[in-house]
Amino acid sequence: MILESPGQFADGMRLAGKVRFSSNPGYRSVTISGMGGSALPGDIFRTYLSDLARRGLLSEPVSIHQNRFYELPFEARRSLNVFASYSGNTEETIESFETAITEGLPAVGISSGGKIEELCLREGVPHIKLPIPFPNFQPRLGTGYFFGALYQLLENEGLVPDMRTEIEDGAEHLRSRLSELEEKGKVLAAKCEGKVPVIYSSPRYESVAMVWKIKFNENSKTAAFWNFFPELNHNEMVGYTHPQGAFQVIMLRDLEDHPKNLKRFEVTAGLLREQGISVDVLDMEGKNVFNRVFSSLLLADFVSYHLALVYGIDPTPVVMVEKLKKMLA
């Protein structure tokens, strides 16, 4: 699943084709309703759109909101709505979708089938059908499909420019680095053994730090946490004064960050090491935000995968999630 992931971006854009929202009253705001692995692409998508705005490539701002609940937030009533569930059977997303249908909100469903597809077909709502390329395919490994489909969908509405060349070139760059990133992942996984991973980043890449944390949770089946500079210097850092466990801190450093924030990475790393905390500072690599984000996430896939192997754990299933769903049902 990891090795094939760079090809997902082009596939996602192709799958979206010329799909458009059921209506568009001129909104430049999008609310993405989804949970777990189906919600991760929305966080990353917001980071990429912010970069396009910084580069002056958006004619007007586009706001991206995330909904991770049963109820639609207030902003959903004034935005285009995407309902994303890889299985198509996520109960929170389905309930939000049913509310949108009742209120006649502009919507698109994205799923591999399930109830989301059924509702789209029944109500005449546009639907983007995602593939299941492997048995037991996990939504957290389908970020490229979601990202490509979301981007193409917004491009179809004229909300974002054509960035296909940058996205496809970035995907090829990822493919060329697979072996290199896997070797780095093995080394970092060994450092994480027996420790709680903690991921820190700049505010610009806080969504990347959060996804790293989730990769450890779901692939390595271990607790992990995340935060960002400079906020963590005002509170969380003090918790290492009397640490109650073994930690592996991973700092995702963007060399284009604010100079004062960059200084915080080095100074904080030194203070934590004085407390006996293991710290690795990783520079985010790539010529643009797309490359930096997805190279970092690919590394997270490899680290969390190899840490699972170190623990003798199958990284694919999420047994506790499935058990919870049965208990709730």
Secondary structure layout:
Elements: H1 8-16, E1 29-33, H2 40-54, E2 63-67, E3 80-84, H3 91-103, E4 107-111, H4 114-123, E5 127-129, H5 143-156, H6 164-176, H7 178-192, E6 196-201, H8 206-219, E7 225-228, E8 247-253, H9 259-274, E9 278-283, H10 289-310, H11 319-328
Parallel strand pairs: 1-2, 1-3, 3-4, 4-5, 6-7, 6-8, 8-9
Helix pairs in contact: 1-5, 2-5, 3-4, 6-10, 7-10, 8-10
Mean pLDDT: 96
Order of strands across the main sheet: 2-1-3-4-5
The CATH architecture category of the largest domain equals: 3-Layer(aba) Sandwich
Largest sheet: 5 strands, parallel
What would you say this structure looks like, in words?
With 329 residues, the chain is α/β, with parallel strands linked by helices. The protein has 2 domains: 5-168, Rossmann fold (3-Layer(aba) Sandwich); 177-310, Rossmann fold. It is built from 11 helices and 9 strands. The strands form 2 sheets. The protein has a 5-stranded parallel β-sheet with strand order 2-1-3-4-5, with helices on both faces. The protein has a 4-stranded parallel β-sheet with strand order 7-6-8-9, with helices on both faces. Helix 4 (114-123) links the parallel strand 4 (107-111) and strand 5 (127-129). The longest helix has 22 residues, at 289-310.
